[in-house]
Prior knowledge:
The protein is an alpha/beta fold. The protein folds into two domains: 2-166 and 335-367, Medium-chain alcohol dehydrogenases, catalytic domain (Quinone Oxidoreductase, Chain A, domain 1); 171-312, NAD(P)-binding Rossmann-like Domain (Rossmann fold). Helix content is 26%, strand content 26%. It is built from eleven helices and 18 strands. Strands 3, 5, 6, 9, 10, 17 and 18 form a seven-stranded mixed beta sheet that branches. Helix 4 packs across helix 5 and helix 7 packs parallel to helix 8 (265-274). The protein is globular and about 65 Å long. Residues 10-366 form the Enoyl reductase (ER) domain. Belongs to the zinc-containing alcohol dehydrogenase family. This is NDMA-dependent alcohol dehydrogenase. Keywords: Metal-binding, NAD, Oxidoreductase, Zinc. Its cofactor is Zn(2+).
Amino acid sequence: MKTKAAVLHAPHKPFEIEELELDGPREGEVLIKYTAAGLCHSDLHLIDNDLVPRFPIVGGHEGAGIIEDVGPGVTKVKPGDHVVCSFIPNCGTCRYCATGRSNLCDMGATILDGHMADGSFRFHRGGTDYGAMCILGTFSERATISQHSLVKVDDWLPLETAVLVGCGVPTGWATANYAGGVRAGDTVVVYGIGGIGINAVQGAAHAGALNIVAVDPVEFKRETALKLGATHAFASADEAMAKIAELTWGQMADQALITVGTVDEDVVTQAFNAVGKGGTVVITGLANPEKLTVHVSGGVMTLFEKTIKGTLFGSANPQYDIVRILRLYQAGAIKLDELVTRRYTLEEVNEGYQDLRDGKNIRGVIMHSAD
Length: 371
């Protein structure tokens, strides 16, 4: 069958809309008709060459849609089911899944190559194989993906909202609750109030943090943070540092959560200095893996028992936490609708990413046609 998709052919080039050939599902795979796709910063990392995929690649790793067909051996879903995609597959049997760390599943090894575990591709054009970002390619009207990349959700949930819990929302929420271990009464500082940072704010509020300090140069984002749980918001790290010292009588923050779009040495150092004794710095944002971005005093780390840790997906469990967060949304305990600043068509994907760069959106969502 044919499908329309937004494709990257090289770094520093915009997405191109193309018609591709799509193979049907094989063993353990499903055909999904995407309803919505999230515009997440990780796809910008492909354009900016901070993450290097195999080109050409169909973009998009946040997706929600309806199952149209299933291949042999599929047991998790059936045609007609509503699903949210997990940008990290979870097989359930590898070392990491078996020890409760399914966010580190070995099936994620090919998410930048965009092919199935056996090395085969499902998108093609003119004899060329096209990869799929995170083996999903949600910037396509349809895709053939593994059943291990799906989470079934309730049919009554709006998919254009549920799409956000495939990556950004649980990553931010869990950065606070799991990776950061925020507790009631803690003081938390969040650097970068985008699609992940705003949900780190919501996660810290859910955990009962006493002080939640948001840091972002964009006024609109600071205002949004204050509406969704932050107690204070500042344009600069220096302003935030002074307020944290005042709020804690010099004890400083318990957790510093780094959720900026591209991590650099400056923000890591600022976060390290913002936490007090026994404090934890969590690095959730990405940077080019070849760049060394953590340069701090080992002596201070030892004497003050500070911790710096990285986290993928906030150290959450996709199969459990995607559903859990949707339950919290239904109960009014976490905001999702309020996160979406604007919706776009597939043809407007480059405009959507320019709006993200310009700080105009907390979240942008692509709405696929109903055909």
